[in-house]
Amino acid sequence: MNPNSASDAFDVVVVGSGFGGAVNAARLAEAGMRVLVLERGPWWGAGGRDRPPEETRPYPRGALGSRKLLRGVRWARNGRRWERLLHRDGFLEVHRFPRLTTVTSSGVGGGSHHYTAIMDEPPAEFFDAYPPEITGAEMRPHFEAVREMLEPAPVPARPEKDAVFDKAVTAAGLPGAQACDLAVAWGEDPRRPQTVTTAAGVPHGTSTYRGTAFVGATDGSTTSLDLTYLPVALRHGAHLRPLCEVTGIGTGDDGYEVRYLDHRTGQESTATAPRVVLAAGCLNTLRLLFAARDVDRTLPRLSRSLGRRFSVNGDRLWLLWRSGVLEDSSWGPSFSAVSRVPRGDLPGYAVGAVGIPVDALPLPPGLTRMLRRSTFLFAMGPDASDATVGFDGRGLTTSVDRSLDPELFTEMDDALRRVAEQYEGRRFLPARAPGRDDLLAVHAMGGCAMARSTDEGVADHRGEVFGHPGLFVADGSLYPRSPGRAPSMTIAALAERQAALIAR
Description:
- By secondary structure, this protein is an alpha/beta fold.
- It has nine helices and 26 strands.
- It folds into two domains: 12-151 and 223-311 and 443-503, 3-Layer(bba) Sandwich (FAD/NAD(P)-binding domain), CATH 3.50.50; 153-209 and 315-380 and 402-433, Cholesterol Oxidase, domain 2.
- The strands form seven sheets. A six-stranded antiparallel sheet has the order 10-19-20-21-18-24. A five-stranded parallel sheet has the order 13-3-2-17-26, covered by helices on one side. Strands 7-6-8-9-25 form a five-stranded mixed sheet, with no helix packed on it.
């Protein structure tokens, strides 16, 4: 680590403020620990209204604002590697591998600003793949704690697009649509939004049904982490430093040293603590750990299982262009219903439709009208979860493609094709990078799998890294297998459990 950098000491340093980081920060601060949260992005939208102006940004909107939609690109393909930081305060980051393109978030509250707000609890048997200390029954109170904070509920007035989707999946021979619990505040009338408070006592608005959640809900209706868990952390004395990007992790006399760059000042600093919670998101957590083990050699005892059991959650995304039966895919929540498809003795998969947030995009009127009649169709299922991520000394590498689980991907593509035909669209295209076997995923997970030993994974049932006591992982990289459903609620519930164990 850099002996000339500024340093300060805490009981725990949390890297990242998404579902794993925010939950840990809140619960550990409540337990009386001195907590520092380091987040590379700014405060976004309503969550930053009481913060200093240099720490906050409005959601990317309009011709000028949309430039901040993209933070940067990490490219590792065709023997070429380059990284381009476009905006230090940008919203999303794109990672491009030979056969996989994926997107990660940047900002206080992490992925809660650009997901569809679905809270999806997996069946109890999902935890059979976890260390034996974790069971479905043991996880129940932790899921309830997440529900209490994020208050998910189905949309009370089902939008027209849900009826179209239900008719399409039924005609395609799939199970009918089921309403999903969404972490959104619903009012009595979307045309007359109200001011309500989150479980943390923070005022915010009710939904206006404009479907912009996955590019930032400008109506403030999503119960995002910056309106729920993080205010609890701050209220109990936690320090949160936005626009501070962690660049390295090592050990020192006082436990762990976390090196970070403050993008506001350009200064490099170091925070020390006996405990570190890594919750930077799957790919960024993997990158930090690989660099610490193989380049800086500051965490030399990290398991050789690092990077194994990687998954894309079976993500498939199709664009259906100009439906003949859909009036406006942007009216209503981005996503609010799903068809759950069984596969005999195998775990099933989910099919859904996501509206296009045309009101958030700087588009000409003609294109806006066409996109209102278009929609994304998606499927996600529990893939084989046996891909590998590596590290070439400069960044991550992976060759994951459809061969990860060809039978599942083929079955889901066939289901999406049948559903798309019912929409009577002008055309429907798999939203993937060029190449027949390429994947576009928004749920990269695994690589730091929970396991019983270093032969099987990287961390134990508490998320504590084997060989490095006090170093914890708390994001999607912990998954030992793909859930085949939205992972955010499970990440948060595991973090509730983890924080309770750390606080003891």
